[in-house]
Sequence to fold (266 residues):
Amino acid sequence: SKPTLPSSYTLPEVWAGDPSSMGGTFGAVNQPTAGARFVAPLPVGKKPLQLYSLGTPNGQKVTIMLYECLLDDKFDSWEINIGQLHQFSSGFVDVNPNSKIPALTDADGPGGNNVNVFETGSILLYLAEKTGKFIPTDPVKRIECMNWLMWNMGTAPYLGQFGHFYKYAPVHIEYGVDRYAMEAKRIVDVLDHLLENRQFIVGEEVTIADFAIFPWVVCLLRGYNAGAFLKLDSYTHVKAWCDRMMSRPNVRRGMQHSYGKWDPNK
Fold:
């Protein structure tokens, strides 16, 4: 049989763990069930777009896009404090049944209908198609853009798992740290090879693929403080791309965006 960690742990035939006993920064946030945990309607401002989110890498993707599309006067934003479980309010679950930020509502959706949009790739694509910006019109370039957007949807969770085992887990587990550090470095190396002979992810023009990927690379540096651990300075093409991205004023605004406060208990 395999060794276990801790050594007293025995793998059960059926999992019946207690999320509240898991420990760590986010150990007790999730449960093995979906749905609302308490009743509280979301705040709604006067503008057509309502963003319910937080300044995480996934949240930053959307605020970068909103500013880059010059939609400053078209959206209100509300902080969903995931540490205080705002994402499990009935209002948020109505917008996103998966209880993950970010989520967006548009009162001026297709046909004048109010629509809910969740998952960052879906939101970025929705805003790109709505505004006609930051998605290539050339069919071949559009396919490449979608390839890299979906690549980010698949790889970002691995970077998040690296952050969990490196920074947030209650104990440092060698296997977990090594597994996800290796994958984080592989992901950054994919980007480094891609960016060797191009300015941005899809070529010479910035697209939603750049907006999706960039905040996660920054998170490795600033959120997880893992630049030295992962030797991120050695990925020179990624570093140069990050400098190009950060030189854009609306990227900086999106990265630093401040949300309106919401107290679901009031």
The mean pLDDT is 96.
